[in-house]
From TrEMBL:
It comes from the Bacteria. This is LysR family transcriptional regulator. SUPFAM superfamilies: Periplasmic binding protein-like II, Winged helix' DNA-binding domain. Belongs to the LysR transcriptional regulatory family. Keywords: DNA-binding, Transcription, Transcription regulation. The keyword Manganese does not apply. It comes from Pseudomonas yamanorum. InterPro entries: LysR-type_TF_proteobact-type, LysR_HTH_N, LysR_subst-bd, WH-like_DNA-bd_sf, WH_DNA-bd_sf. Residues 11-62 form the HTH lysR-type domain. Pfam families: HTH_1, LysR_substrate.
Amino acid sequence: MASNIGWELYRSFLGVLKEGSLSGAARQLGITQPTVGRHIAALEKSLNVVLFTRSASGLLPTAVALTLRTHAETMETTAAALERAASPQGPEVRGVVRVSASEVIGVEVLPPIITRLRQQHPHLKVELVLSNRLLDLLQLEADIAVRMVRPSQEQLLAKRIGVIEVGLHARNDYLQQHGTPQSLNDLTTHSVIGYDQESAFIRSLAVKGFERSAFSLSSDSDLAQLALIRAGAGIGGCQVKLARQDTRLSRVLPDAFALQLDTWVTMHEDLRNSPRCRVTFDALVAGLQHYVQD
């Protein structure tokens, strides 16, 4: 088995995995279909395995291919991090910086902050990754992360922003039609919006009366939950700051339900001297502090 296999072979392998065909991978990667085919054949020969089988619906990955996927994705992440780190660092701040944040923060809070950042540094490119999963900064899945929990790794540079409060909210016309609950027990007669799959983060909240069995509408997407609240579908959790910006929304049971989310901006300490990461880190800290304190 060959021990020196070029990254481009694994890159094509991932492209076929994601697209399900040689032609789809070629379009995604910006190379020709025959080139992708040669890469897959070369990788199979080097590893002495079969990676894909043909079917009416396209190329199907074998069990070996599925096993290799995680390792290839790790290589992809590392390659992207190397490209970002090697970006030109001339007198102007330029290059690519990858920022991760939760869905709601990424959609509702960060866009104006990033807009101002790029107005000041137009040669800076920002990749915004929205996920409620904590991307691994030590493995360089992202350069900078906005997190709602305190970072525990010593190698991370972290700046505390403050507390973002989450409360229960509903649209005014929903409350006019169904009444305003006076206690958590009253929620049993309401359409409650919540999460779909329990996670460690959800378990850590341990809010009595807000278990999955009580939800009439559920989604693991915070954006979907927010959209349902704004549509008048029921009562759900929403950042108090965001709700105040919408005159149609009212908070309910503020004394019974209030989550205090400690908010941090973090990056690997090795990036502290990178101009692109430093200016982005500082801009996120300043913008989020203004959001929290305003």
